[in-house]
Write a structure and sequence with these properties.
Radius of gyration: 22 Å
Strand order of the largest sheet: 4-3-5-6
Shape: globular
Order of helices and strands: HHHEEHEHEHEHEH
Number of helices: 8
Number of strands: 6
CATH architecture of one domain: 3-Layer(aba) Sandwich
Helix content: 40-55%
Distance between the termini: 62 Å
Length: 203
């Protein structure tokens, strides 16, 4: 590791922080100096929180969302009031939490743990698609909503899942896309307008 002029321990801290997504060298250096200036209790509280989340948090055995180590199923899968016939497929747990905040969906979820990205070496075997197929094959699911991100990799992932689920007598749907509510045509880009026309519906 190249030396920056700091002590070795600070170099190590900057290097570790710099490996976090969205954190460059300058940001890592600022965070390191913040940790050096804060109290020992505050710094150790952060360290303990990281240690605890790595030791206690697991993936739900059913949907792959996050859950406590002592709970094999997450809160959503254990909730008997959820619609047990519909599954919404998302890429990451943070996408699930975003949808939950909207309160627009009351079914079950399935977290893929990523999306197809051949250039990054992420293929179907790296995702939880097989687990999703097993859930659908049980026979209680009537609809699978594909809520992968609206980009090339997300669309490719949704297409693969739709092909894998074509053997089952269920509805496979995709989240609508297009013009945002309250927006104007003037500021809509080409892809937004194309999606809006494809997803148009009767009034």
């Amino acid at each position: 590791m190249p030396r920056s002029g700091y002590r070795t321990a600070v170099d190590r801290l900057c290097a570790a922080l710099g490996r976090l997504p969205g954190i460059g060298a300058k940001s890592a250096e600022r965070l390191a100096h913040h940790l050096l200036k804060c109290t020992e209790a505050e710094a150790f509280e952060l360290a303990d929180a990281i240690r605890e989340v790595k030791s206690r948090i697991r993936h739900c055995q059913n949907c792959c969302h996050l859950t406590e180590a002592e709970e094999p199923l997450c809160d959503i899968c254990r909730d008997p009031l959820r619609d047990q016939t519909t599954i919404c497929v998302v890429e990451q747990s943070r996408d699930l939490l975003t949808l939950e905040k909207s309160a627009a969906f009351r079914g079950l979820y399935h977290v893929l743990l990523g999306r197809l990205s051949p250039l990054s070496g992420i293929g179907p075997d790296s995702l939880s698609i097989d687990t999703l197929v097993e859930r659908v094959s049980a026979g209680t699911i009537q609809e699978v909503v594909l809520a992968t991100n609206p980009n090339l990799e997300g669309d490719g992932t949704a297409l693969l899942i739709a092909e894998r689920l074509a053997q089952f007598p269920i509805r496979v749907t995709r989240l609508a896309r297009g013009l945002a509510s309250g927006g104007t045509l003037e500021f809509a880009n080409r892809d937004m307008l194309a999606d809006a026309f494809v997803g148009r519906r009767p009034v």
